[in-house]
Every structure is written in structure tokens, then in C-alpha cells.
TrEMBL record:
MF terms in GO: arginine deiminase activity
Lineage: Archaea, Methanobacteriati, Methanobacteriota, Stenosarchaea group, Methanomicrobia
Keyword tags: Hydrolase
Keyword Cell membrane: no
Presence of keyword Transcription regulation: no
Alphabetical list of PANTHER family matching this protein: ARGININE DEIMINASE (PTHR47271:SF2)
GO biological process: L-arginine deiminase pathway
Name of the molecule in the record: Arginine deiminase
Lineage: superkingdom: Archaea
EC number(s) recorded for this UniProt protein: 3.5.3.6
Length: 323
């Protein structure tokens, strides 16, 4: 611990920065996580829905599984940074935020800096303030953030150094999406926007789509109600599957029941290798993926399921690199 603090001071003092950027689907090098703590005590029988939990978490089991997951990452060569080691000013906030552990939703890290979310009040309000401080202390610049307070935007997916995927979910307001798209198109070539049903099971973009490799992804296409491609000077309706196919990406469909078990939300360790809940995919889908040469590193969740999130949701990917 002492040595972490020394390190933190040093990072601040020298303003040095760690390697960052997940634009390429290369080997996962480093992540930011938040091991949940006292804040989980806020969630009880009468308020778990308010706190966006599916049930009251078994705290020791929850923390234990989170630690096991961190161990799995480390044993696969991923450097794991702990959020609270890099937060000073906003430490008090951490104890009030039972969803802070779902760091995936608060920021996406591109090679040009972080795309910071604006979390939806009341349950997730201000999580981005804590994450911003940590990223700052780690030396990762903020590329985009929201200034207005009358809306929310809980994240996007970075598909490459040119392409961002935005889903219009129950956790996004349309004016914030438009603001995001117009700002980010100065840095990225295109934004794929898709409207999906406003329901908890589709709360974030990772619930309907994710890449396993540059040429392979899992998606739940029935949720794609309308998809548009935005570039600096045009916007047009597209067929998502056909557009991705044109770009050389095949989509393996998941079923309604798999989508509901977070099938599309996994952590690529490297291109073609994913860490995933062992409860998310049916045998047939696993077989299809094995046929494609995909390796799945299974993780069995019990207590973690109470939070309604996947391993991916618990993981803010900081750096990926192709060898
Ligand atoms: N990217 C995700 N699917 N995150 C899941 C977040 C779960 C969290 N309890 C919430 O409802 O906000």
C-alpha cells in the first residue's frame, strides 16, 4: 500500500503518464477496476431497484468474485490498476456509489484520450467525477466530456481509431448523443448510431453488440431498431449487419435468452480470445465460436450477478496493443 501511495505521488508530481488507448483490438495490457467496498452496504431489500441492482448483493461473495476476476486478468498478463489508489479529492464520493464498480460505463479510452460519460441521476450521478480524477492522476487526458447537466450519456464502444458505436439506450438522452456525435466527428471518421429498446436488459451498448476479432462479433440484431451512419458531412440510414459485413466483419447472432444473460458483453483478452461468464452462451453458440477458432476463458459468476453487469462492465480498459 505504502508503495502505491509513493507511486501515486510520483505520478502526480512528474505528471507522467501510463500507456493508454484501446483503438486497436490487440492484447489487453492494462485496466482500471474498482473493488467494491462499503458502498455495497447501501443496497438493501427496500432500495435495490433504486440502486439498479437485480437483488441485494451478498457482499463478501461479491468482493471475493471481483478479486478472483482481477486475479484472472493478472494471470493473463494484464496490469490491474485500482481506482481508489488514484483518487484523493473525491474519495468520499466512492462510499456513496454502489455502481462505481461498473467502470465500463463511465469512460472509454482512445489513443487520443478518454471519452468521459455523463452518468444518469440519481443512482449513477457523478461517477464520472471520480473516474476523471483517477484518469487525470494516471496521466490520461480527457478527449471529450459533457458540460451541460440536463441529460446523460452512459458510454459508447470504440471500434477502431476511425469508428465509434453509439447506442441510444435508457441511459442516453438524444440531445447528448447529438452533441457527442458532432464533437467526436472532429476526431473520428464515423459514428455508427443505433436506437435500441429502452429497457434494463439493453441498458448499455455492450448488451447488444461486441467484437471478438476485427472480423467477428456477437450481436443481438432484433434490438437494432434503426441504425444511422454519421460522418462529418453526411448522415444516412444503414443496415447494421450489411454495413459491418462490408467492412469484413461477420456477426454471430445470439438468442433472446442469451442476450438476457449478457451474451454480448465479454472482455476480449486479445483478438479471438475472450473472458466471459460461463452462464451467458448456449452450447450451440459456443460450438459456432469454437468452429471460428475463438477461445473462451470461462468465469463462473454467482454473487456478481446481483449487480446486473458482466465482467466487461466491471472493467475500464486502459490499453491494448497489437504485438
Ligand atoms: N455495461 C453494462 N452493461 N453495465 C452494467 C451496469 C449495471 C449497473 N447495476 C447499472 O444498472 O447501471
Amino acid at each position: 500500500m505504502g508503495c502505491q501511495i509513493e507511486k501515486l505521488k510520483e505520478e502526480k508530481k512528474t505528471g507522467s503518464s501510463i500507456a493508454y488507448g484501446c483503438d486497436e483490438l490487440g492484447k489487453l495490457k492494462s485496466v482500471l477496476v474498482h473493488t467494491p467496498g462499503d458502498e455495497l452496504n447501501l443496497v438493501n431489500e427496500s432500495n435495490y431497484e433504486h440502486w439498479l441492482y437485480d437483488e441485494v448483493p451478498d457482499i463478501s461473495g461479491y468482493v471475493e468474485e471481483h478479486r478472483q476476476y482481477q486475479g484472472l486478468l493478472e494471470s493473463n498478463g494484464v496490469r490491474v490498476y485500482e481506482l481508489s489508489d488514484h483518487v484523493d479529492e473525491n474519495r468520499e464520493l466512492i462510499r456513496k456509489m454502489p455502481n462505481l464498480t461498473f467502470l465500463h460505463d463511465t469512460a472509454v479510452i482512445s489513443g487520443k484520450g478518454a471519452l468521459l460519460s455523463k452518468m444518469r441521476p440519481p443512482a449513477r450521478e457523478n461517477e464520472e467525477v471520480v473516474v476523471k480524477e483517477a484518469l487525470n492522476n494516471l496521466g490520461i487526458p480527457i478527449l471529450s466530456e459533457f458540460n451541460g447537466s440536463k441529460g446523460f450519456f452512459e458510454g459508447c464502444l470504440l471500434l477502431s481509431k476511425d469508428t465509434i458505436f453509439v447506442a441510444d439506450t435508457e441511459r442516453h438522452t438524444y440531445p447528448f448523443i447529438l452533441e457527442f456525435i458532432s464533437n467526436i466527428l472532429t476526431e473520428f471518421e464515423e459514428v455508427i448510431y443505433t436506437r435500441i429498446p429502452k429497457a434494463r436488459r439493453y441498458m448499455h451498448p455492450d448488451t447488444v453488440f461486441n467484437r471478438i476479432r476485427e472480423d467477428l462479433a456477437l450481436a443481438y440484431l432484433p434490438a437494432f431498431e434503426e441504425t444511422c451512419l454519421f460522418t462529418e458531412d453526411s448522415s444516412e440510414r444503414i443496415d447494421f449487419k450489411a454495413y459491418m459485413q462490408e467492412k469484413g466483419m461477420e456477426i454471430v447472432p445470439v438468442s433472446d435468452s442469451e442476450q438476457n444473460r449478457l451474451a454480448c458483453s465479454f472482455v476480449p483478452l486479445e483478438s479471438g480470445t475472450i473472458i466471459h461468464y460461463d452462464t451467458s452462451l448456449d452450447r450451440d453458440t459456443k460450438k459456432d465460436l469454437a468452429g471460428e477458432g475463438v477461445e473462451i476463458i470461462p468465469f463462473h459468476p454467482e454473487a456478481l450477478l446481483a449487480g446486473g453487469g458482466s465482467l466487461r462492465c466491471h472493467t475500464l480498459r486502459l490499453c491494448r496493443r497489437k504485438k
